[in-house]
């Protein structure tokens, strides 16, 4: 890609990341409304957490009123870090039986109380003809539009599932967005969006498909790590242009778990890159130059993508690993400086210009600043990492970095 195209792609990603994760939106209320052809009382018993049908979706396991001030204890089916259901304490206000209520979360066993400081949810039911207009509202303080948009579509889905349940008595889990076929479609869309950046020809399409495959393999590594850490559910979601994200089935339980899951994205590909390099060399020795070049491009793309993910940016895998294994801010700063310097050194040896590398370092610094305040604080501190595990993860990080660094240097020698 030309410098102008590269700069455009990087600037677009930075702008999207700022818009999705960082831009301050203040206190916002999201509302969705739908008329459901069912009587109001049946819907009230489903939406009211203390109602007889509150478990219609399987989300609420039990709920009980604790005092006369509207404080209640709600047990949710979502797994906490200990594998047990999350327990939530909430206060109900403005309750009109059969018509409306609002709820504030006081605390739960998963997230710090500060997460719920500005959160409020409401439900209102109004008879309309032979049906009922249901209006749901969620108020919160947002940074970035991603979570706001997520809540909007989550509420739309909740109303759709409520309508289906009310009409048929059946609840259907999941939805079209996370369906495997939808995710394959998003992956194809991601490749098509990337295609113009590599040139609108067959070679450009191949490179776009390779990059999309590399992202999928990276997230597959995270999913495998989640499974090894005891997450009974793990899934991957493709986000066109921005890449993909692997999601576990419960909150993290320990610092070792965070570091292991973060490292396994690049760690999984570290097993594949040497195999692809060997296959490329074999194809070249057999005279299959096209296949050899394609495999070399795959190895180079995988190595470069994964080594870039190990850079110590706050939300990148490398940053997450270093924050778990470094015993203090001084050690974290030194390790971050060493890792970023090593990355830039690999880029210099691979033939990238000094100006490009300086710009890359600046971009990574900006990314770290943009994303450092986007984390969610857990209710309780994660279990500390043992010294032996700290050194094991550090050694694995170094090994994965070296493998991908060698992959970048090898591919640059073959393709440049």
Automatic annotation (TrEMBL):
Query: Which cofactors does the annotated protein need, by name?
Result: Zn(2+)
Query: One MF term in GO for this entry?
Result: peptidase activity
BP-aspect Gene Ontology terms: proteolysis
Q: Name the Gene3D superfamilies on file.
A: 3.30.530.20
- Tell whether Ribosomal protein is among the UniProt keywords: no
Q: Which domain of life is it from?
A: Bacteria
Residue ranges spanning the membrane: these are 6-27, 258-284, 290-313, 325-346, 352-370, 391-413
Q: Recite the UniProt keywords alphabetically.
A: Hydrolase, Membrane, Metalloprotease, Protease, Transmembrane, Transmembrane helix, Zinc
Would you identify the family this protein belongs to, as annotated?
Answer: Belongs to the peptidase M50B family.
State the name under which the record lists this protein. Site-2 protease family protein
Source organism per UniProt: Mesorhizobium huakuii
